[in-house]
Amino acid sequence: MAAAFVGGALLGAVFGELLKAVSEEKDKAVTFKDRLEQLESTLRNSIPWIEEIEKLNQVLDRPKQETENLVRMMEQVEQLVRKCSKVKWNCFKRYVYAKKIIKLDTSISDFFRTSLPLQHARDGKLIMVEVKEIHTMVRRMSGNGNINGWMSNQVGDCCSAPDPPVISPGLDVPLKELKMELFKDGRQFIVVSAPGGYGKTTLVQRLCKDDQVQGKFKDDIFYVTVSKNPNVKAIVQKVLHHKGYPVPEFQTDEAAINDLERFFKQMRIEAILLVLDDVWPGSESLLQKLGFQLPDYKILVTSRSEFPQFGSVHYLKPLTYEAARTLFLHSANLQDGNSYIPDENIVSKILRACKGCPLALKVVGGSLCGKHEVFWQRMVKECSRGESVFQSKNDILDCLGSSLDVLNNEVKECYLDLCSFPEDQRIPITALIDMWMELYELVDDVFAITNLHELSSQNLVDRVVTRKTAGDYGCYNDDFVMQHDLLRELTICRSKSEPINQRKRLVVEISGNNFPKWWMDQKQHPNNASLLSISTDETFSSNWPDMQGPEVKVVVLNIRTKKYVLPDFLQKMDELKVLIVTNYGFSPAELNNFRVLSALSKLKKIRLEHVSLPNSLATVRMNHLQKVSLVMCNVGQVFRNSTFRISDAFPNLLEMDIDYCNDLIELPDGLCDIVSMEKLRITNCHRLSALPEGI
């Protein structure tokens, strides 16, 4: 027995019973099976530390009460683990049990952190490593076992409001007014309305971080970005996951809405704030369905539309001259305190052209940072031309377009490539590096990073770093950029400025199975794009018509369905060098038809995110592939398949990245036979227990 193994003393005996409970319940509580197996593994690895504590108790005569507290907490954890198999589908009870386990686990963590004497600090730190792993796994176990922790890895705190920009002048008064509206009784909906780029998102982010707002709503502030094509099921899943509530697979939007309403009612939360950012026209039915009849339940909406039927509308005005001047000069002087700042007359002309729009001020200011006076004068002329980038009379977009023209050609082309990714989504820097290295024949990824820094310094992208060590040792797995939706519109418009068959980048967004008309007319006019991006929604059936793309070098597929078939026309794209497939749905997508890639002699890099690799991959041969990146993928099934040898599938692989693949237990057979391999990077795969001897 485990209890005898660890010495038979009180602490060891209780620990043994806990280990026994986990071992027995893992096969009964099917929903928690993976997580209980992980917990069992970690507990077994912790046996030497329990023995060490027993020895320390004898040598140091630790106070009896401290050990008894730890024993009592372990007994309570055991009881809760025993109940896991009895919970079945009662989601509310699972949530309650999860909260109790997390609380007890935290108490155990506190014991290890505070009770060990200073002279044994090293031992204490080692114990804490194991306890943190248990803490993490208990949290994962309490959620939905079917998603393998993906949502936590993908978006961190799913519905936590992002931190607002450090500098946001001119918003103090609007913030005060908006807060007064929020605290008024009897108003459920508040709509913050303004044109794109006026700071609506920044204002509500500041509101969510306000001390008084947090004091009222506490941990029940849910921040969700809705965007042009709202995915109701995904919105609800994020809210439930954010609170640690089990996340089911909803069949319909109505089922998702109903489950969210039940959750709010069962939790009896005193006050709820649901923030819906970037809501587009046509989303009235969504807002209406979310308007549950609950006490002190507020819904805050940001939109370019007003939605007057929902009551209070808060209009965000342009910045005053002084606030605009502060933001502009900060942006123009951001990188270098000695940057050239011209006379007030030139500044005044640019401010008038920007119309008090914060986004325009930041972008135009960033484009002039450190530039000679001649660039400032050119910007004044560009902003006053009266010619519109969007073929409209919008002067603000005119200024934004002028800022792009300041960039050198390669950096500008890199920026326009960002439209290949969906609106309001984080773009992995590693994906951009793979694209740009091949599209622009860069000899080293440092040039791609340089281009990215140039875009960031111009305020054309926002860098998002999810770990402090992002970028260390050339690893950018936790480094992303985001693009304002107005700037994305600008890049799409620039990309569409030429006829279909002459465009450098072809961006296609498909709703359902409705393909654009030009797609069917390609036999006479094949496209000559070098970058092809196709986005499909959750209703897409993977019934592909043919496409001719003889010059395509990079394909970006943005998907949302549970099952997805790679299009057959890929096998005819002889110039294809990079394939990027990203699933933005909640559950991993089953990806099939890899055989179409076997004949592509120039395909060098594949990046897959949040997909499940099929067993049929064992029959695929990609002799020219040089790099594979697997992010948040289900790889265990194919890696454990006895017929799959990675040295046969990718015999000339140079580089392999595996990140957040939670079912990775061991590396695939044949890995050590790939003599060409130069880099193997494995990060955040916490179930990986051993490396092959041949490595």
User: Helix/strand-derived class?
Assistant: alpha/beta
CATH architecture field of the largest domain: Alpha-Beta Horseshoe
The total of helices stands at 26
Overall number of strands: 19
Q: What percentage of amino acids are in beta strands?
A: 5-15%
Largest sheet, order of strands side by side? Answer: 9-10-11-13-15-17-18-19
- Please compute the radius of gyration using only Cα atoms: 28 Å
Largest sheet: 8 strands, parallel
The percent of residues in helical segments reads 40-55%
Provide the number of structural domains.
Answer: 5
Low-confidence stretches: 1-8, 59-63, 112-156, 386-393
What name is given to the CATH topology of the largest domain?
Leucine-rich repeat, LRR (right-handed beta-alpha superhelix)
Mean pLDDT: 80
Q: What is the CATH class designation of the largest domain?
A: Alpha Beta
InterPro entries: Apaf_helical (IPR042197), LRR_dom_sf (IPR032675), NB-ARC (IPR002182), P-loop_NTPase (IPR027417), Powdery_mildew-R_dom (IPR008808), WH-like_DNA-bd_sf (IPR036388)
Family: Belongs to the disease resistance NB-LRR family.
Domain RPW8: 1-150
GO biological process, one term: defense response
